[in-house]
Amino acid sequence: MTTTFEYAVRTREGKVTKGRVEGDSKAVVAEKLKAMGYTPVSLEEVKTTGLSREITLGGQKRVKLKDLAILSRQFSTMINSGLSLLRSLSILEEQTQNSRLAAVMGKVRIDVEGGASLSGAMAKHPDVFPPIMVHMTRAGEVGGFLDQVMSQLAANFEAEVRLRGKIKSAMTYPVVVFVMAILAMTAMLLFIVPVFASMFESLGGELPLPTRILVWMSSTLKILAPVIVVLLLVFFWWWRRHKHDQKVRDFVDPLKLKAPVFGPLAQKIAISRFTRNLGTMVHSGVPILQALDITGQTTGNIVIERAVADVQDSVRRGEPLARPLTHHPVFPPMVVQMMAVGEDTGALDLMLGKISDFYDAEVESTTESLTSLIEPLMIAVVGGMIGAMIIALYMPIFKVFDLIK
């Protein structure tokens, strides 16, 4: 059984580097470090109990796409500068800010020290490194251009981060306004309307219809509010656990593309991801069938995933890449024609990159248009609902003096 040791070594340049490595004994680990050109300074066995390991894992951060983009960019720079693979991995382990990613990079470095390939070591952590990163790394190792692959991965991840950022920034304001409006109306129904209702009852007389409807909504919400909160919590819990299930995706994903306003936006986002990832992998030398299999899963929509599966079958039979896409309306004719031209001219990766850039610009333009359209509509709707509630509350006050007389 191997043991984990924490070491401090001095490099050829005289710098002290710390890290962790697995081995059968201190002597074996010390010999391994010497063989790598290091001078051991200290070597201590790491003792971790099951409880402490569980607590550590529970508090780890989630590895975001931005973290992988920074990691890939730094990795590419170090390899291109002539640093060895193990030295680069050691530096990345030390300077990575995300604690979970740093811990995983330490495990990857240990596996590489033990003789494993970089892609094989990364493949052991599918929850951190996506398939596109593992396969492109493998292609870079085989072809001897790992620095170029890491640079392409960084550009790919950075483009995806920018795309997500544009969508989030465009949708933040309408969502915040909508949530604040719901909270304001709920607070009025639960706390303000009952005060007016008790005052109206003490005065006697018949309330106007809008006021009666508002009082009924308030009394109903008092009873249903706890039930609604519980149902929402149950739904969010269920959605997080089952949103990737096949049956759920079969129902939800087609609806995303058919939505009146947001459907075209979802389509453009999926096509942008598909073309960017496929172009990056083709340019890196990943076999086309593996590239199609991976990019189909990264689109985030089962409709496009099935279309890509048809393309895979076509390629296996020796047919052109773009022909099956004509049978799937989710792919516009321009995309199909540009892919066909790229395939005929041997520049498929470049053509896919142009398609991705075009749809990135389309997504940005669409989100800006939606924002400019949604903001005034949201303000008008929210103002109308709150204004109607206020009018309904104050209508009986016009009759207060008549009731007092």
Characterization of this structure:
- The chain has 405 residues and is mainly alpha-helical.
- The chain contains 16 helices and 3 strands.
- A 3-stranded antiparallel beta sheet has the order 2-1-3.
- Strand 1 and strand 2 form a beta hairpin.
- Helix 8 packs antiparallel against helix 9, helix 8 packs antiparallel against helix 11 (263-283) and helix 14 (333-345) packs antiparallel against helix 15 (348-394).
- The longest helix has 58 residues, at 146-203.
- The protein is extended, with a radius of gyration of 30 Å.
- The relative contact order is 0.08.
- The model is unreliable at 49-59 (pLDDT under 50).
Descriptive tags:
73% helix, 16 helices, extended, 405 residues
Summarize the structure.
With 405 residues, this protein is mostly helical. The protein has helices at residues 26-35, 50-58, 65-80, 85-95, 99-113, 118-123, 131-143, 146-203, 209-242, 246-258, 263-283, 288-298, 302-316, 333-345, 348-394, 400-404; strands at residues 3-10, 16-23, 39-45.
Distance between the termini: 94 Å
Number of helices: 16
Instruction: Encode the helix/strand succession as letters.
Output: EEHEHHHHHHHHHHHHHHH
**Order of the strands making up the biggest sheet:** 2-1-3
List low-pLDDT spans: 49-59
Silhouette: extended
Q: How big a fraction of the residues is strand?
A: 5-15%
Return Rg in Å: 30 Å
Secondary structure: helix percent: over 70%
Using DSSP, what is the number of strands?
Answer: 3
User: What's the mean pLDDT score?
Assistant: 80
Largest sheet composition: 3 strands, antiparallel
